[in-house]
User: Fold this.
Amino acid sequence: MSTIPNTELIGRPIIDLDTPALLLDMAAMQRNLQHMMLFLSGKGVRLRPHVKLYRATPELVRMQLDAGAIGMTCAKLSEAEVLAAAGVQDILIANQIVNPIKIERLIKLTQISDIKVAVDSRQNVMELAQAAQTHGISLGVLVEVNIGHNRCGVAPFQPTLDLVRFILEYPGLKFMGLMGYDGHCTMKVAEFDRRSVSLQANRLLVDTRQFIEQAGIEVEIVSGAGTFTYRYACEVSGITEVQAGTFLLMDTAFREHGVSEFEPTLSVLATVISRPGYAGAEQLAIIDTGRKSISPQMGLPEVKRPAAAWVRSLSDEHGRVVLEAAAEQVKTGDKIELWVRDANATINQFDRFYIIREGLVEDVWPVPLCGQNT
Assistant:
């Protein structure tokens, strides 16, 4: 396999693609990026986009850095390794790295990139400090604060200050700031409540910053929020950067839950493999795309084209599509395009993006971490 597979398809219409195929609308993606950067302009808040959605695909990373992103956020050490190999110099691993094998990999990354990592326990601080001192480096750390999501993170105020002071005892570590994720303010709350609960969460993060600074400790970075809440985090004075990532590619689930300022860019192209002949199946088309290719975790996908069609069900390798209009015109071998409803879980099942502009293949980008979970 070549580094960029299927380059012979560049310039050809999407109907020439083998299926299932993951399509990415380049023009819509560029508009999404422009919208985000224009929104942040003049607000004193920088963009550190999260790359987990698209598994750190370097082309997407570079576009955002070129547009003004301060650096990148990732969840996995493997994502950080891809970013560093691509030349990204400012990387935040917004997760706790605790396995000795992973800590060794983390230390190696510091030799080629500025790596910062989240911590929320003294045990992890000691592990990281020992490794950093052994290798003679200074590792940047952010204390993750639990601002209501109740996943990782130390409690605000005094418990956070206590952990910060503990970090300062170790010369191998450099305390850089705080991060907090308001994930409880996304699909888990009604759209009309989202602003108030997000403001409350992010103010808690900033108030904790002030609490630490009153103790005489500088807090350089205050990082958080995502695509659902970046707008509200920017209203809170003291937030220095937002980690929004899904905005770039979007999916229909985010849009349905109130993020209407960005366009969905992702679809999956499928082929009709059967038009069943049994009674009652006159409007039914069977496609070669099921749960292994397009995630139904957030609900069944919508049909992008043809018009007046909908997905009845998905099994592992098949989909049932009901054709409400012009059913007689759809035949075996025809293509059906489905909107991606759950971008995270769908991208994770593909090894490449087909970059599309005006119905033609513009490029083919490998997804670098397909099947890798460390």
